[in-house]
Amino acid sequence: MKKTFMGVRLKRLREERRLTQAALADKLGISLSYLNQMENNQRPLTLPVLLALNSAFGLDLQMFAEGDEARLMSDLKEVLSDPSLGETIATAEVREIALNMPAVGRALVGLHRRSRQAVEQAAALAARLGEDRQADAAMLPSTAFEEVRDFFYANHNYIAELDETAEQIALKINLKAGQAASALASHLESDFGVRIVLDGVDDIAAGTQRWFDGQTKTLHLSRRLHPGQQAFQLGTQIAMLSFDRELQALVDKAGLTSKEARGLARIGLANYFAGALVLPYALFLEQAEQRRYDVELLTQQFDVGFETICHRLSTLQRPSARGVPFFFIRVDRAGNISKRQSATDFHFSRVGGTCPLWNVYEAFANPGRILTQLARMPDERTYLWIARTVSHGRGGYLAPAKTFAVALGCDIRHAGSVVYSQGLDLSDPSVPTPIGMGCKVCERPECAQRAFPPIGRALQIDETRSRFAPYATS
Fold first, then answer.
1. Which of 258, 301, 266 is nearest to 117 (CA)?
2. pLDDT grade for 428, boundaries at 50, 70 and 90
3. β-strands 371-376, 317-318: how paired?
4. Are residues 362 and 422 in the same domain?
C-alpha cells in the first residue's frame, strides 16, 4: 500500500464523532502521539489503521480513497489559475486541497462556476445592448450547454437507468446489428400507432431531421438520413413517447438552474437512450472487444457513422461489464468544442481553447484519415488518441457542409486493448507528444507552440528574445 497522508480527513472524522484525540486513539488501539502525527500528516494512514477505523465505526473506506483526486485537481488548477486572484498556487498546494480537503475543493469549483456564469451572462447582455466591452467573453459557450455537459461528466457519461432499459427493448424486438431502422419503425407502428413518413428537401424545415405531429401521430424524417441516422431518430422518438416521466425525473434530479438547461438535458438524455437502443450494451461491447475497438469495423457492423461509434464507446462504463474508458471530443476548425464526453478523469479545459499540438487539429489537414498519437499531459499522464474528420452535408452543390474533427482517447494503460496502438512504442518515454489543456492553463514554459504565458503568472520581459512579442516574426 502506498503512503497515504489523510490527516485532515481523519481530524474531520474525529470532530464529527465528537471525540478527543485520546478517545479516538483508544478506540483504534494506537498511541496518542501516533494519532497526533497522522492528523498532522507527519505519518501516513496505514492499512491496519484503516481496518481499525472500519471495525470501530463501520466506515466506508472510500472516504479515504484517492479515486477522484485527479479530476478535482484538474478542476482546481483551472479555478486557481484565474488572474483576478492575484496569487500563484503551486501544484503541491492544489493536491493538498484535493487530497485532504475535497469538500473545500468542490466548494471552490462550484463558486468559480457560478461566478463565471454571472460574468458570461453580463457579457452576453452587454453584447445585446451594443456595448463592446467583454465582447469576447460573450462568445463563450452558453451556460445551459455547459451545465448539461457537466451533468453527463459528473455521471461519467453513463446513465444506467436508460442504458439498461434500452437494452431490454432491443432484446424484446429482436433488434439485429445493422438492421435497427426497420425494427424500430415496426416497433413505433405496432406499439404506439405512429406512422413513419420520409419527407423530401422541400417538405421539412431546413436542418430538421425529425418532426413529430402528435395530433396525427405521424413522425416525419428527412429523406437525407441514411439508415443508421434514421434508427437514431426513431430511437429518440421512442424515448420521448415511452419514457417521458423517466426523462423528466432524471432532469429534475440533476438540479439544473435554467429552463434552457433542463430542456437541453431532456433532449440529451433522449439521444443517449437512442444510442443505447441502436447499439445495445452487451452486444456492442462484445463486438468492440472482438474487433479491438476498431471504429471503422464497428461502423460497418452496425451501419452507423464514425462519430456515433466513437460516442457510444465513451459510454461503456457499466459496473458489471466495463469497456475501455474512453474520452470523446468533437471540434471545428476554429477550435470550438461542440461535444465532449469523458468516462473517466481526463479534463477538458474551458479556458482559452485546447492544445494545437493535439492531433485532433491535424485531422483537418488529412480529411477522412485516422491519425494516431501518444500524448503526455503536464501531470505526466500519457494517453493514446485517434482523430478523424467527419462531414455532414445538407443538400446540393451550393449547400454548405459541416466538417468536424472527432477524437477518441484512453489512458496508455488500456492502449494494448486498442487496435490503434499497433506500431507505437508504448514503452519509449520519448515517443509521446507533450500537450496541455490550452496555453492559458498549461505549465510547459518551453513549448515551441505556446501562444502566450499561462494566466496567473507574471510575464518575464527579456529584450534579448522575441518570445511572446506582439509583432514578432519567425
1. 258
2. very high
3. unpaired
4. yes
Last residue of a domain, one of 64, 88, 108: 64
Cβ-based neighbours of 456, under 8 Å, separated by 6 or more: 80, 81, 82, 83, 85, 87, 88, 89
Residue 252, domain CATH = 1.10.10.2910
Domain, as residue range, for 425: 322-474
Q: What is the pLDDT of residues 111-136, one digit of tens each?
A: 887 877 676 556 545 544 544 433 34
d(CA 220, CA 198): 6
Q: Are 201 and 226 in contact (CB under 8 A)?
A: no
Three-state secondary-structure class, residue 227: helix
Q: pLDDT at position 127, please?
A: 43
Provide the number of structural domains found in the chain: 4
284 is a domain residue: no
Determine the average pLDDT of the residues in 241-254: 93
Three-point CA angle 370, 299, 435, nearest 5°: 30
Place of cell 405496432: 190
Which among 20, 45, 64 is the end of a domain? 64
